[in-house]
Amino acid sequence: MNVKTVLILLGLALATVFALVCVLLTRGRAPSICQHLPPVQEDTQDGQSLVFADLTPEEMAQVVRYLQGNLGVQLVDASRAKPSDNCIASVDLQVPAKAEVLRFLDGGGARPPREALAVLYFGNQPDPNVTEYVVGPLPTPAYHRDVTVQKYGGKVPYHRRPVTGKEYMDINTLIQRELKKAPRFLAACCESDGTDLAILTTAPRGFKSGDRTTWFVLFHNVAGSGYYLSPVGLEVLVEHKDLHVSNWQLHKVFYNGRYFATTGDLEEEFVAGTLEVVKLKQPQADAVLGSMKLRSPPDSPGPLHFEAQGPRYRVRDNHITFQGWSIAFGMNPNSGPRLFDIRYHGERIVYELSLQEALALYGSNCPGGMSTRYLDGSFGIGRFAYELVRGLDCPYTATYVDRHYLAESDAPKTNQNSLCIFEHDSALPLRRHFSDSQSFYYGGLRKNTLVIRTISTLINYDYIWDFMFHGSGAMEVRVHATGYISTSFLHHQGTDYGNRVGPHTLGTMHLHHMHYKVDLDVDGQLNSLETQDMEYELIKDPWSMQNTIERPYLRRKSLEREDEAAFLLNAPMPRYLSFASPNPNKWGHPRSYRIQTISFAGKHLPTSSSMERSVSWGRYQLAVTRRKEEEPTSTSIYNQNDPWTPTVAFVDFINNETITNEDLVAWISVGFLHIPHAEDVPNTVTVGNGVGFFLRPYNYFDEDPSVDSPDSIYFSSEQDTGACGANPLACLPRTAGCAPHLPPFRFGGFLNL
């Protein structure tokens, strides 16, 4: 071997060693951090969406200061106000009239004045009542006007006001005082002196207008666990109508199937040995029914949602843009999430899409359970939308937005990170086809969706509210229920009203019904309602006349009046129901959007019920009415405490007016019957407990608009599918070969409680 050969081999060896060293040095190196790119779609609205924006904390504070200085009465902070005081109950945005807004958005008109709606409780006057004022203009108020009579046809009686936190505190004090009259009974039944028992309200409060008498259910309370699964069998009825707290009384006591006049009477029967007592041990934190504490050590993390080049949507103030979609979003402290001016590729499809109400109606053989009909808007669907947990409630890298409200306090409060926005990859094609004949190719599009989400915790239940926007021009609205079931103490024939889920716990049957307002403006404000469904016709076979064939055909119908367009709950409804424009698409069909509901609703309250009119929206799975500025909502926060004379009765909206070429609103009810079972402990799961509806284009376009999506995939057998230029999927190893930038996990959701 000559020297030259040795040198060549030595050089090759050194090169090999160098390459191996490089591989070893880079093997453990972390990938580079993903570089975010700005969204392709720019926000060109120039602040127009702010006409719908929720009030800022500064605006709320200005309204409070104005009212304190201009009403001429003493106002007590609602957080400490007695029923006999005057106070500011809430302040929210007064949404401008639609005509004013459209003149501004579409006609170049002036921006409507920014105003607030203030609700005040006047208890310190000869005629106690609830009054609503519009206050403006913001940010520097100079006027207020009483709109109560204009909205409701008269003053709102004082007994209809929602119960405040201070009122609940005073009731709790009364109950604790009364429980002290039965010390031996409490020690025997519950290993308690009463002070460690949790107290849960029911609603409504009585049997007739003017009543304010509430059943309260008592539970064992264990820190760090849901007390809702541990009833002790004791319930008390409290009358709290009087303006003076000292005059409130405990009217009735219920225990284990029996009723007593007072806790003293209950104690006497126990001492006399004539009371059957179920002795419950104080539950221990490590063994309590329904504990959510970890039972297994953490596993390796699951799949992570992240955007390799940053979010493809854009959030600016209260406005979101995403691949042709444009949405203004907000939150009503009472009724919850609300969206406005929803456009697709510049065309308005929906003017308003808002949650109206959530009803939970229970059955039981205990008084608290059997009388419960919660109307959650009166408690505060938006107010109790707390901070979302990053990485569980929403994807870790979602955009989180704070929401502000003013309720039962003179100072605004903030639920930080209580609304999230993210793009969701459903791991399902939106459309696809693999061609295996004539020519060989593949075409498709991933089903990526923009999601706007918030979650409300209303006592025991957690409602997940989703608004989703698809690449096909469709909108999807969905709600899932989770959280703890509400329960009763199991006694006698309790399983006629649910299932046993614990030693002495009855999971009580109930229904969840939700109501939405959808103000569709399909290719303009003037729309008509059209239905389509199928029938069969028996005809002679055209090519063999001795035979017959059952041929399906399309049955089309235009609904001309409101009564025709009010579809009763659980009754047959046309499978295709559309808001139609008078203008045709390229193929001569009316440009339309179809309403498609997904619901498993229980039975509506019988119309013979004295309180049915207060929830009469629940009669209908869908009702279409002419839009009226004086019919902004289907219910009222005052309906909960006086359902016998409802402040707003939705059924009155339906009066057989014409709905042809008019500005129309769809009112949609969805829901499900829930019979709790063992698997609802500790929490009801979201699987199978989701309902909602779609708004889908129906001949609105000339073809599926998603064909223009930049995410579309197409390649043929003649192409190199592994080449990035021919197939964008082949680019992923390079474009997504980076590590996401994850912000530190923080949670401040307990700070505002």
From TrEMBL:
<comment type="similarity">
    <text>Belongs to the copper/topaquinone oxidase family.</text>
</comment>
<dbReference type="GO" id="GO:0009308">
    <property type="term" value="P:amine metabolic process"/>
</dbReference>
<feature type="domain" description="Copper amine oxidase N2-terminal">
    <location>
        <begin position="72"/>
        <end position="143"/>
    </location>
</feature>
<dbReference type="Pfam" id="PF02727">
    <property type="entry name" value="Cu_amine_oxidN2"/>
</dbReference>
<dbReference type="GO" id="GO:0048038">
    <property type="term" value="F:quinone binding"/>
</dbReference>
<dbReference type="InterPro" id="IPR000269">
    <property type="entry name" value="Cu_amine_oxidase"/>
</dbReference>
<feature type="domain" description="Copper amine oxidase N3-terminal">
    <location>
        <begin position="161"/>
        <end position="258"/>
    </location>
</feature>
<dbReference type="GO" id="GO:0005507">
    <property type="term" value="F:copper ion binding"/>
</dbReference>
<protein>
    <recommendedName>
        <fullName>Amine oxidase</fullName>
        <ecNumber>1.4.3.-</ecNumber>
    </recommendedName>
</protein>
<dbReference type="InterPro" id="IPR015802">
    <property type="entry name" value="Cu_amine_oxidase_N3"/>
</dbReference>
<dbReference type="Pfam" id="PF01179">
    <property type="entry name" value="Cu_amine_oxid"/>
</dbReference>
<feature type="modified residue" description="2',4',5'-topaquinone">
    <location>
        <position position="461"/>
    </location>
</feature>
<keyword id="KW-0801">TPQ</keyword>
<dbReference type="InterPro" id="IPR016182">
    <property type="entry name" value="Cu_amine_oxidase_N-reg"/>
</dbReference>
<dbReference type="GO" id="GO:0005886">
    <property type="term" value="C:plasma membrane"/>
</dbReference>
<dbReference type="InterPro" id="IPR015800">
    <property type="entry name" value="Cu_amine_oxidase_N2"/>
</dbReference>
<dbReference type="InterPro" id="IPR049948">
    <property type="entry name" value="Cu_Am_ox_TPQ-bd"/>
</dbReference>
<keyword id="KW-0732">Signal</keyword>
<keyword id="KW-0186">Copper</keyword>
<dbReference type="GO" id="GO:0008131">
    <property type="term" value="F:primary methylamine oxidase activity"/>
</dbReference>
<feature type="active site" description="Schiff-base intermediate with substrate; via topaquinone">
    <location>
        <position position="461"/>
    </location>
</feature>
<feature type="domain" description="Copper amine oxidase catalytic">
    <location>
        <begin position="306"/>
        <end position="706"/>
    </location>
</feature>
<keyword id="KW-0479">Metal-binding</keyword>
<dbReference type="InterPro" id="IPR015798">
    <property type="entry name" value="Cu_amine_oxidase_C"/>
</dbReference>
<feature type="active site" description="Proton acceptor">
    <location>
        <position position="376"/>
    </location>
</feature>
<dbReference type="Pfam" id="PF02728">
    <property type="entry name" value="Cu_amine_oxidN3"/>
</dbReference>
<dbReference type="InterPro" id="IPR036460">
    <property type="entry name" value="Cu_amine_oxidase_C_sf"/>
</dbReference>
<feature type="signal peptide">
    <location>
        <begin position="1"/>
        <end position="19"/>
    </location>
</feature>
<keyword id="KW-0560">Oxidoreductase</keyword>
